[in-house]
Design a protein that fits this description.
heterodimer; A: mainly alpha; flat; disordered C terminus; B: mainly alpha; 10 helices; 79% helix; transmembrane (chain A); transmembrane helix (chain A)
Chain lengths: 219, 220
């Protein structure tokens, strides 16, 4: 097999990689926004519950979460497909990280923004919707891009749940012909082609954002 | 098959047998990733021809999944006659993957050291290596301590990836129990709980260390 054939063979798994990424984002973005906003506003017991939920999703190793949910949920009578479990676990894990960027972005906003909004007669919700969130989202976009890359790379884990994604295809091809150098460098190149442009885009955004603020170090 | 809590409780010690390897892998990988990451960053700054090359290397490391990098090392090294224990391959893999992220941390840390420090050292006649080791690196440490602490927890959380290379760390022990008893639900659940506890302990320790060293707020 030529390198090009290997690469095309690996890209036969692109569909699953893409589906899990998109479904994962559908979990990650709402969870990040909701949990970040709730953590920012809630107090007392409610805040404790929100924080515990976030910490559960972002403090557990994602590969362990994946196995735990995949194998343990059926024992509690919940049967989900491998794609559903993969997208949910990967998405909520990244969303947990994202919620911290949302909260941090909301917290670093100047208090005057809120006070000015309230003084203009906007309700608290309207201030959040029209004044605080637009600025917070702009501030966290570079971090968000980095987290999206983490999600794309994380989808390689669904190969362990025997879904035929790009990583799984590479393992299949490796069994057909003994050419580990070709197959596994092909796998690295396949992901590089997808993620490298996004990495460069994120770096550019980060640089332009850093001009106005301090650069962020978290991923 | 329903969930058997008594069985889950009974296998906790079996799964915990892997904790030694988990910690060893985490510590070695953290040291390896720091050393490599610092090397990338110093190389990136060494001259203007190396700079774009190193920039690409670091971006490429960050643009491929750690699982794919681990498979690559695990299957390609033996092809060239390099046969290493899976644990060593795993430590190399995690060190390599996280070196891409840590080089960015070192970059930010070095950027925060005032330029005059390096220039003063050079004008005093220090060689470039001595300037890096005795002048830049010590001042950089304070800037990188907090993000390094965060990444040490990330690396700890990445150690279960080594289970796919059959390294007997905690997730690996859980798989051993599963294949012996033909029950997957309880071992995976127990592994999940134990890793969560371990990560939370690590976060607490890192936070405590940061406060002790007075580096909680990364300077901007």
């Amino acid at each position: 097999m030529t390198f090009l054939q290997i690469l095309l063979g690996i890209y036969e798994g692109f569909g699953i990689t893409a589906i899990v990424t998109v479904l994962g984002l559908l979990y990650a973005i709402p969870f990040a926004l909701l949990a970040g906003i709730l953590q920012h506003f809630s107090t007392g017991a409610a805040r404790w519950v929100v924080t515990a939920t976030i910490e559960f999703w972002r403090s557990s190793p994602v590969i362990v979460l994946l196995y735990a949910f995949y194998y343990s949920l059926p024992a509690f009578g919940i049967n989900l497909s491998a794609i559903s479990v993969g997208a949910m676990v990967l998405g909520l894990n990244i969303g947990g990280y994202g919620s911290q960027s949302v909260r941090a972005a909301l917290q670093t906003l100047n208090r005057g923004q809120r006070e000015a909004g309230l003084a203009l007669g906007l309700s608290r919700i309207e201030v959040l919707r029209f004044v605080e969130l637009p600025q917070a989202i702009a501030a966290m976009t570079p971090t968000f891009i980095n987290q999206a890359i983490q999600l794309i790379k994380g989808t390689s884990l669904v190969s362990l749940l025997t879904l035929t994604d790009m990583t799984f295809r590479a393992k299949e091809i490796a069994q057909l012909s003994y050419n580990p150098v070709g197959v596994y460098s092909g796998l690295l190149v396949a992901y590089l082609i997808i993620c490298y442009p996004v990495t460069i885009f994120g770096r550019r955004l980060e640089r332009s954002a850093a001009k106005g603020r301090g650069a962020s170090h978290e991923f | 098959m329903s969930f058997d809590f008594a069985f889950a409780l009974k296998i906790v010690p079996r799964v915990l047998e892997g904790i030694g390897n988990t910690l060893v892998v985490a510590i070695l990988s953290f040291m390896g990733a720091s050393a490599l990451g610092f090397l990338w960053e110093i190389a990136r700054r060494s001259n203007r021809h190396v700079r774009p090359v190193m920039q690409f290397v670091v971006d490429a490391i960050r643009s491929t999944p750690v699982l794919a990098q681990l498979y690559f090392l695990f299957y390609v090294l033996p092809y060239y006659g390099v046969v290493l224990p899976a644990l060593v391959v795993g430590v190399f893999g995690l060190s390599f993957y996280y070196s891409g992220y840590l080089s960015e941390v070192f970059k930010a840390g070095i950027d925060l050291v005032p330029r005059g420090q390096g220039e003063a050292a050079q004008s005093l006649g220090l060689s470039r290596i001595h300037t890096v080791i005795f002048v830049i690196a010590p001042q950089m440490l304070r800037n990188v301590a907090a993000p390094l602490g965060a990444y040490s927890v990330s690396i700890l959380k990445a150690t279960p990836y080594l289970a796919v290379l059959a390294v007997p760390e905690m997730l690996g022990s859980a798989f051993d129990v599963a294949s012996e008893t033909y029950r997957y639900a309880e071992p995976m659940f127990v592994a999940g709980i134990l890793f969560l506890c371990l990560a939370l302990i690590a976060v607490t320790l890192v936070n405590w260390l940061e406060r002790y060293l007075g580096v909680t707020t990364p300077p901007h």
